[in-house]
Amino acid sequence: MLYITQLIYIREGQESIFHQFEDVAIPIISKYNGRLLLRVRPGKEAFVEAHIEEPYEIHLVEFDSPLDFENFMKDEERKQFLHLKEQSIKASVLIQGVKL
């Protein structure tokens, strides 16, 4: 099992464009043996302490294998909408891990 945590930072005013991309990308996860476990949009009050910029959203996704994740990233339908991601996301941090 492969776990991906993603911290997502949105360009100001581009939230609706980001949501359009997510509306396409999230359903594709399941085509590649993946599951969206958490999608969190924390408010300012949710952060007890922060030494980095606070993300707009945090995603936790699991895939059955690293190959499944690679295939998801190469999905042709998803790639058709990457311009929405590029327009709306100023930065993201992908953290790869395993369940201990």
- Percent range for β-strand residues: 25-35%
- Give a quick account of the main beta sheet: strands, pairing sense, barrel closure: 4 strands, antiparallel
Task: Calculate the terminal CA-CA distance, rounded to whole Å.
Answer: 11 Å
Helix content estimate = 25-40%
Report on this structure.
The chain is an alpha+beta fold. The protein has a domain at 1-60. The chain has four helices and four strands; from the N terminus they run E-H-E-E-H-H-H-E. Strands 2-3-1-4 form a four-stranded antiparallel beta sheet. Helix 1 (15-29) packs across helix 4. The longest helix has 15 residues, at 15-29. The chain is globular and about 35 Å long.
Outline the fold blueprint.
Elements: E1 2-10, H1 15-29, E2 34-40, E3 57-63, H2 66-73, H3 76-79, H4 82-88, E4 89-97
Helix pairs in contact: 1-4
Comma- or semicolon-separated keywords:
4 helices, globular, alpha+beta, four-stranded antiparallel β-sheet
Q: How do you describe this structure in short?
A:
The chain has helices at 15-29, 66-73, 76-79, 82-88; strands spanning 2-10, 34-40, 57-63, 89-97. It is of the alpha+beta class.
